[in-house]
Write a structure and sequence with these properties.
41% helix; alpha+beta; two-stranded parallel sheet; four-stranded antiparallel β-sheet
Length: 282
Amino acid sequence: MESQRKTILITVAVLVILVIGAGLLYWYYMRPPRPASTVEPPKAQEPSQPPSPAETKPAEEKEPPPEPAVKLPDLGQSDDFVKQTIKGLSPHGKIGDWMKIKNIIRVITASVDNIASGKSPRAHLGFLFYGQVFPVSEKGGKIYLGSKSYERYDLLADAFVSLNTGRTIQAYEKLKPLFQEAYRELGYPQKDFHSTLVQAIKRILDTPIVEREVLLKEEGKGVNYLYVDDGLEDMNEVQKHLLRMGPKNTRRIHQKLREMALALGVPESQLPQTQIYIPRTK
């Protein structure tokens, strides 16, 4: 299991971008189609009376020209553009604070790729690590994952669910080419970033909700713990991050991600269903 010094907010930045990623496909697939233009047939005129100026059929209106495409900066110079684009996505002030990093698009793209593979994005999101002690509680001579530690993740969940979907859609629409370029840099010249984004969402949704206390055991020297329940210990790194957020916060994140996945056009039948996991207590 993770060592004593672990992240408090490791998942926030990644989840924010998962929602941003869901935006483009929501906009593309779910927006209502533009109604077809119709032209009324000219009214029949009395042969003996020419049409009056008021009855004359106006010239057919032309559709307004499409808005010019936004000129994107070079990927390496895109931080200011990204920060400006994501303004107003949420009233939660912490999201803006977390974006005060360099190479935002590259960091987020690599983090999403890690999550899709079940790996921790810690290497890319070190700025979220506060170095706080891994909290445990003791009861009846046994060691448990401290339930109060779940409250440390309330800030993360609050920020995530506060995102405005409509504005997020617009943000991703602008930024998608930059994400794709950063994804190619990672060594995926033929693979679409979106498919990896969907896989990352599914990876998080596949994390079970653990409702009961989680029993731990000490391992080796120092303060290091393992889960007594093999099913929990065998979870991938992403699932363990969600486990440490607690059942309430995990449910909230699941609900938001499922909503966005459906908006992406992913059928409900292809999304992992909510699982309740009952761990061993001895």
